[in-house]
Design goal:
Layout: E1 13-17, E2 24-28, E3 31-35, H1 50-73, E4 77-88, E5 105-115, H2 119-129, H3 133-139
Antiparallel strand pairs: 1-2, 2-3, 4-5
Helix pairs in contact: 1-2
Length: about 150
């Protein structure tokens, strides 16, 4: 059984919703933000939606990982810019995929590397981007376990 104290922000992220449709208050590492659905989905568009937050997490992790790697190597990486998009694709759209049951969710990431880098460095950085912890988490064997908290 989980108690209220186990759902504190010290353990990660706390998300709550009241009576305002789809507006959630998020406390992450002592930082407060709002997540919401767009007006077209019944929300007030008061903040990014859940998939936008997922893309932001993935993009941030990739950018940080690239910055760390380039710094450690002493490479002249001046800036990283990533553009991420989530879509749902039908299985037929993924006939070339190497999976027997292709995923319908798809994330496209465009990576822009600014700096006096050679082709080999750019290629290596693109490989490294896909090794960031969040990328590995969402593409690995992820298990999410929900537990009811008694209040």
């Amino acid at each position: 059984m989980t108690t209220k104290s186990q759902t504190s922000a010290a353990n990660g992220v706390v998300v709550s919703i009241g009576t305002t449709p789809y507006r959630t208050e998020v406390l992450a590492g002592g930082h407060a933000l709002i997540a919401d659905e767009p007006r077209s989905a019944g929300g007030a568009d008061a903040g990014p939606g859940p998939y936008e937050l997922l893309l932001a997490s993935l993009g941030s992790c990739k950018a940080i990982t690239l910055r760390m790697y380039a710094d450690r190597k002493g490479w002249p990486l001046e800036r990283v810019a990533l553009s991420l998009r989530h879509s749902r694709r039908h299985g037929a759209d993924c006939e070339a995929c190497d999976q027997t049951e292709p995923r319908l969710d798809h994330i496209d990431v465009e990576v822009q590397l600014v700096g006096d880098l050679d082709d080999a460095q750019r290629a290596r950085l693109l490989e490294i981007a896909d090794r960031c912890p969040v990328h590995r988490t969402i593409t690995g064997d992820l298990r999410v376990v929900s537990t009811l908290v008694v209040s």
